[in-house]
Amino acid sequence: MDDRVQDVTSKPATAARIYDYYLGGIHNFPADREVARDVIEYFPFVPAAARANRAFLGRAVHYLLDAGVRQFLDIGSGIPTEGNVHEIAQQIAPEARVVYVDLDPVAVSESLQILEGNEHATAIVGDLCAPQSVLKHPTVQGLIDFREPVGLLLAAVLHFIQDDAQAYAVIGELLRPLAPGSYLVASHSAAETFVAFIKQNPPPEDVYRRRTATPGTIRSRAEVERFFAGLELVDPGVTAVQDWRPGPGETTRDTSFTGGLWVGVGRKK
User: Fold this and answer.
1) Could you say which of 11, 100, 166, 181 is the most buried, measured as most Cβ atoms within 10 Å of its Cβ?
2) Domains of the chain
3) In the chain, what is the straight-line distance between the N-terminal and C-terminal CA atoms, in Å?
4) Closest to 49 (Cα-Cα) out of 252, 214, 257
5) 17 burial class (0-12, 13-18, 19+ CB within 10 angstroms)?
6) Cα distance between residue 99 and residue 25, in whole Å
7) What sign has the CA pseudo-torsion 170, 223, 104, 215?
8) Paired strand residues for 212
9) pTM of the entire structure?
10) Would strands 183-189 and 261-267 be described as parallel, antiparallel, or unpaired?
11) Cβ–Cβ under 8 Å, residues 236 and 243
12) Comparing C-alpha atoms, which of 154, 172, 152, 147 is closest to residue 72?
């Protein structure tokens, strides 16, 4: 077998590439597709939640741009395929700067290929659980001006920090150096949705936790609201993903989708 083919087929599943599969992307490997299909078998609403999350991220970025934000730090970004932050931001403000951060080196490599030639957007390998290493990374320091407002984007990534104390501490560390007028945009798996679904449809095993390098957890609405402590929550506050400021022509409820994510946007005073 060709070494390159063997390398691809032997790669373990990761959150970034599983998420790409949910969105219908092509940047995923056999292990990612296998886990994703098993998760979908038990939780059929997950692909709809992923699409709703991507749509929320787009609406939130538009909101931040309207508020004057011109630089974005997207941690846990996965692979910035069609409709991601740099495309949205730079269509409105070509000078907008974006740094994508992900734990998966393959996702970052794919990102750098997509971003080749874009002087205002790049990607780095970084760990959400080591916020100082992200904030002090030379690429972040070179592209992000912390004296000006920053859009801190944590879309569907905080649930990969299983320890509550650590998760809340990470948010504090990331927000501390940001200038007033910066924003936190976050989405998180909803305990209310998953617990209710599991009670009715108990899966035989936790396939995601056992077969990926990035196991996650779920949190309640109240627990997600704690991430925004000390910030000015943008209306309508922490809400279901599809209910956060739907645009003209967007329905607030997809009948095939029962929830799955709490989302919110908060402004640093």
Assistant:
1) 100
2) 46-243+254-267 (3.40.50.150)
3) 58
4) 257
5) buried
6) 21
7) positive
8) 13
9) 0.86
10) antiparallel
11) yes
12) 152
Pull the structure tokens for residue 148. Answer: 């000006």
Q: 38 CB contacts (<8 Å, ≥6 apart)?
A: 207, 211
Residues 24, 30, 35, 40, CA torsion sign: positive
Per residue of the chain (269 residues), what is the pLDDT tens digit?
A: 333 334 444 567 887 788 888 888 888 889 989 988 988 887 788 888 888 999 999 999 999 999 999 999 999 998 877 679 999 999 999 999 999 999 989 889 989 999 999 999 999 999 999 999 999 999 999 999 999 999 999 999 999 999 999 999 999 999 999 999 999 999 999 998 877 777 676 665 555 455 555 567 899 999 999 999 999 999 999 999 999 999 876 654 544 445 689 999 999 99
- C-alpha–C-alpha distance, residues 200 and 139, integer Å: 47
Extended beta strands in the chain, E state: 71-75, 97-102, 121-125, 151-155, 183-189, 232-233, 239-240, 261-267
Q: Compute CA distances 239 → 9, 60, 84, 176, whole Å.
A: 39, 13, 22, 25
The position carrying tokens 């009670």 is: 199
CA distance 42 to 201: 8
CA nearest to 261, candidates 55, 35, 42, 23: 55
Helix, strand, coil percentages, rounded to 5, for the chain: 45, 15, 40
Residue bearing tokens 């538009």: 62
